[in-house]
Write a structure and sequence with these properties.
The protein has 480 residues and is of the alpha/beta class. 38% of the residues lie in helices and 15% in strands. The two termini are 40 Å apart. The chain binds iron/sulfur cluster (SF4). Residues 198, 200-202, 205, 207-208, 243-244, 276 line the site of iron/sulfur cluster.
Length: 480
């Protein structure tokens, strides 16, 4: 990967610094769009004794100084998406990192067992809770007994830990001058998390569990960070991150402040990547459109019946009414997220999805649909549900493609299959991933099955039900 045009990259002298490699096991575009990755990078670099540099899957060497990963004292991985396990294994196996100290954090470590043997520590929760103490104590070589007394730090080999770490209240470090690049999915943007967790309880939702409890940043902190960031950073966009921005208790004050800021400084686009229509704030829609954001993203998930079954209680009619409101304020494009292969789904549910999409198209919107198979996630009320039969999922996807043509995008069945075996996997799945990485890549489902057979792993069963032992369940009480 060549040199990336980026602003607010941290530059320090390497000499006498404790060197931390922060690895995002996916491409740069995905890494730079992740607020957690940005926060961690700047937070670690506030610390005098350390210098944190970033790596992504295409970078090979650090983005900051072009150093090799073997020159670092500590390797930290951000593990956001189950198939990224292949990339973590690639770093560990190919770069010969087995003797380097490693820690893996991010949502996927809520089932840490596929990582067994690959990392010394796992960080469960949100890094702000104790990551600086962790670094301090690693530098001072205090020993693992002390490290595992820190909230969030789990010694996976010896199963020692003292529970999930998370800041409460949420007003912890939020950088105003963030490393940013036009290559991010948001373009050149300042990202702020307005809240973490979610007030709703959809039964399939992993994010709600990972980021619980629901917490909000104060309006005082948000306005200060936004003011400083936009004035000095001149970002083109501001992204307000939240599971559902409409739920933020001081939303109207925030909109008023942003309106006023635009009048006295410059025009920046405001993006809200996640909204629920059963809690819609019209002022917000009006404000977003006026700021230049003409796209609204919604997640109806499935047909009305299945939507109610999974705990998202709004009707198709509610959704169409919301679209009328969007139309009134000048929204041009609607992005819709759906799942297929939910428990109890029939072809009628898929037909009902097509019907809904067509209704919205008829209203004059440009509609883009993303549809992916339902993947049961650990710790959710759906953790014991089945992942669909691959052949059947392929047929359903074919049907959706035939009906929706170019309006449809998908990550595909293979990605969902990988997600499914890893999300509810165990140590055996970790071994399988190591085997696949050693024997070449990227693995197709057939290659995975072949490797699994050699290791005596019943892959079909893992995809369908997860590990028979369901080891993450034993940890649950400690995390809460
Ligand atoms: S799906 Fe969205 S609204 Fe539902 S619990 Fe998850 S984050 Fe909240």
């Amino acid at each position: 990967m060549g040199v990336v045009a980026e602003k607010f990259t941290v530059k320090k002298k390497v000499r006498r610094k404790f060197r931390i490699a922060l690895v995002y096991p996916n491409v740069y575009k995905v890494a730079i769009s992740n607020l957690g990755f940005r926060i961690l990078y700047h937070l670690l670099n506030l610390y005098e004794r350390a210098y944190c540099e970033r790596f992504t899957s295409e970078s090979g060497r650090s983005l900051e100084t072009g150093s090799s990963i073997s020159e670092f004292n500590l390797i930290m991985f951000t593990y956001q998406y189950e198939p990224d396990l292949f990339e973590i294994v690639r770093w560990v196996v190919r770069q010969n990192l087995s003797n380097r100290m490693k820690i893996v954090g991010g949502p996927c470590v809520y089932n840490p067992f596929p990582l067994k043997g690959l990392t010394d520590y796992v960080y469960v929760g949100e890094a702000e809770a104790s990551i600086i103490d962790f670094i301090n104590e690693v530098i001072d070589e205090v020993g693992e007994d002390v490290l595992t007394t820190l909230k969030g730090v789990l010694d996976l080999e010896n199963m020692k830990y003292s529970g999930k770490g998370f800041p409460e209240p949420l007003d912890t470090f939020l950088p105003s001058l963030q490393a940013s690049s036009k290559l991010s999915v948001f373009g050149d943007a300042l990202l702020v998390d307005v809240s973490r967790g979610c007030r709703w309880s959809c039964k399939f939702c992993f994010g709600r569990y990972v980021y619980s409890p629901y917490r909000e940043r104060s309006i005082e902190q948000l306005t200060q960070v936004i003011e400083e960031g936009l004035k000095a950073g001149r970002y083109e966009s501001l992204v307000l991150i939240s599971a559902d921005l409409n739920s933020y208790s001081r939303l109207n004050e925030l909109i008023e402040y942003l309106n006023e800021l635009q009048k006295r400084s410059y025009k920046f686009k405001v993006v809200a990547p996640s909204l629920r229509i059963d809690n819609l704030n019209e002022e917000l829609i009006e404000f977003l459109v006026e700021s230049g954001e003409k796209t609204i993203t919604l997640a109806p998930e499935s047909s009305e019946d299945l939507r109610y079954m999974i705990g998202k209680k709004f009707t198709d009619e509610d959704l169409l009414k919301a679209c009328t409101i969007f139309k009134r304020y000048g929204v041009k494009k609607i992005k819709l997220y759906f799942m297929f292969g939910l428990p109890g789904e029939t072809m009628q549910d898929l037909e009902s999805i097509i019907g809904l999409v067509r209704e919205i198209m008829k209203m004059g919107f440009l509609v883009r649909v993303s549809a992916n198979p339902f993947v049961p996630k650990p710790h959710t009320p759906f953790e014991d549900e089945e992942f669909g039969d691959v052949k059947e999922l392929k047929e359903r996807l074919r049907f959706l493609k035939k009906e929706l043509k170019d309006a449809l995008s998908t990550d595909g069945i293979r990605q969902a299959f990988l997600q499914s075996i890893i999300a509810r996997g165990d140590e055996e799945i970790g071994k399988l991933v190591v085997e696949c990485v050693k024997s070449g890549e990227p693995p197709t489902i057939t290659q995975l099955k072949r490797n699994a057979e050699r290791l005596g792993i019943d892959l079909k069963e893992y995809a369908k039900h997860g590990s028979e032992a369901k080891p993450w369940k034993r940890l649950r009480t400690h995390y809460l």
